[in-house]
Amino acid sequence: MTTDYQQAREALGVRLRELRLSAPDGRLTGSGLARRLGWPQPKISKLENGKQTATPEDLRAWAEGTGQPDAYDELLARLGGFESHIRSWRRQLASGHKPVQDMHLAAHADAFVFRGWESSMVMGILQTPDYARHIFTRYAELQQSPRDTEEAVRSRIKRQDALYDPAKRFHLIMWEAALRALICPPSVLAAQLDRLAGVIGLDTVELGIIPFSASLKIPPATAFWMYDDSRVIVETWHSELWIEDEAGVNTYLRTWNALKESAVYGSDAHRAISAARRTLNV
């Protein structure tokens, strides 16, 4: 959890405590409010001390329970202000993968320069439909989310139209492991690698591969995307992080530049892809 996120959660807790102590019908104790709301008393303490993230329902109950229902909109705005930067997969995938893909499609439409790093699979904007289908299926199983695989695949492939927009530029780096991970059948991966080889040479795309043999300045860790060097999206197992503060974005820009120093491009990248392709024997 980021420091900024935790600080914002603690600030919300301070505001919740203020509302409890300033209840119009008299100062409420934590146990008194818990009884009024039908909650366990530790929940009151966790929310006030920034140890638990409130839901919108929690905030409404708190505002009404302290006799200050008009405070709900303010509390909800506070929650939205910091929760928008940490988007849990449980909430995002409640209706399946397509809404998430549509959101990224909209974000792509508004940006012009993209930097991407991926260490474990072929990045979405370069995926074939068959490869994407296997990715969505595996993640739906992991997250126990609704299956809308075909709709999600169509949205992801639609995003690839941006690769042919002359106003946009994509600077992409992948670790060699992404070329070899059998997250799909070998025949699907073979077609995916053929697709990657075909991307090299597009005037809108700079595709770099970091070979296993490369000397690394930093470990090839978490994947991320940068939009116009002003927003970073990082995927973790439980959530997506949307980072927009200058210091945070600059950290990822330095990370990307350090990774780029280990990457090969052009014919060397093509050879790395071809070597991975030959191991499949299909």
Keywords for this structure?
single chain; 282 residues; alpha/beta; 434 Repressor (Amino-terminal Domain); Endonuclease, Chain A; 2 domains; seven-stranded mixed beta sheet; 13 helices; elongated
Count of distinct strands:
7
How many individual helices?
13
Question: Hey, roughly how much beta strand do the residues contain?
Answer: 5-15%
Biggest pleated sheet: 7 strands, mixed
Please compute the radius of gyration using only Cα atoms: 23 Å
Strand neighbour order, sheet with most strands: 1-7-6-5-2-3-4
Query: What is the CATH class of the largest domain?
Result: Alpha Beta
Verbal overview:
- With 282 residues, the chain is of the alpha/beta class.
- It folds into 2 domains: 3-84, 434 Repressor (Amino-terminal Domain) (Orthogonal Bundle), CATH 1.10.260; 88-278, Endonuclease Chain A (Endonuclease, Chain A).
- The protein has 13 helices and 7 strands.
- The protein has a 7-stranded mixed beta sheet with strand order 1-7-6-5-2-3-4.
- Strand 5 and strand 6 (231-235) form a beta hairpin.
- The longest helix is centred in the first third of the chain and has 19 residues, at 3-21.
- The radius of gyration is 23 Å and the shape is elongated.
- The two termini are 44 Å apart.
- The model has no long low-confidence stretch (mean pLDDT 92).
